[in-house]
Amino acid sequence: MIPAEGTAAPRPPSDEASSDVAGSGITGRDVAGSGVTGRDVARPGITGRDVAGLLFAAEMYGVQLDQLAAVLRVSESRARAIAARWRRQRYAESARLGPGAPWLWLTRAGLASCGLPYTCAPPALSRLAHIRAVAAVRLALESASGYRAAGAYWRSERRLRARLGGRVGLRDHLPDGEVHWPDAAPVAWAGECWAVEAELTRKTVSRTAAIMGELLSRTGDYGCAAADAAVPGRPPRHARVLYLCSPAARPTVIRAREALGSAAARVEIRALPPGAAMEQAVRPAAGQQAARQPSTGQPSTGQPSTGQPSSGQPGTAR
Q1: From edge to edge, which strands make up the β-sheet containing 267-271?
Q2: What is the pLDDT of residues 192-234, one digit of tens each?
Q3: What range defines the domain where residue 93 resides?
Q4: pTM for the full model?
């Protein structure tokens, strides 16, 4: 029921799902008892759809315009108008940080309006490809009817990092996200928590296997006491680890899983969904370059420039 591929956008969240706004939780269920709901985010001129988009952008470090359109379930031109309104309201900033569509991220005011304690900053250039891939994975998961029917919810890496309060060790690994399945969900894996990894580039087999082992052996929530993080005999935090891989990364991930022995059964490997890769800028062909030269008074016979980036493999990524 978890799609290996998927392009459909998720439904706009309900008021319950929109309660991902407490000071230290990603979703309404993650902050149960806090008393904060999607309505608490509302400000004059802010709709429920705005809340969904602002929260998504905040939790994912930032979002490209085409993915924002998928979150909001509107056209890209309509998403551009909404982003412009958020800029006017000083909830967000946007810029073209790399190939493809512009990126949008929340300002200090935008984060504060969502009740989120994150540091205001544009997404790091070195992580743009990875952030996009993780967002595509989240969109694909949230578009699955079974995911919505079960009331499953996503807990972001940014949320997990905030819970740790900067106490992430040099070799500690945080998953790109967690999927939580409520206890009462009508699925066989009700009550489970899954770690999600979007893998664009190859690591070494040993490093990948070590990450898998760390995720599979963890027993405590992120931010718990160090003594509770991995306690032998306790139920694992992550019932399984879901890897969504590029073609380049998949062979290494498969070899790493094979090195785990019996624990390999808890690692699932899928392809990254469509739209996960960043677009690459096109280097103009010789004819296109000639067509851009100053006019000589003769009709141009060169091919017209597209002026648009083409889809390609992601750049530097995790």
Answers
A1: 153-156, 177-180, 193-199, 240-245, 267-271
A2: 999 999 999 999 999 999 999 999 999 999 988 889 989 999 9
A3: 8-123
A4: 0.77
pLDDT for the residue 280: 61
Q: Any idea what the CATH number is for the domain that residue 19 is in?
A: 1.10.10.10
Last residue of a domain, one of 80, 95, 123: 123
Whether 129 and 108 map to the same domain: the answer is no
Mean pLDDT computed over 82-101: 96
The region of weakest confidence among 14-23, 34-43, 134-143 is 14-23
Report the C-alpha gap between 71 and 75 in whole angstroms: 10
Buried b / exposed e across 42-60, counting CB within 10 Å, b at 16+?
eeeebebbbbbbbbbbbbb
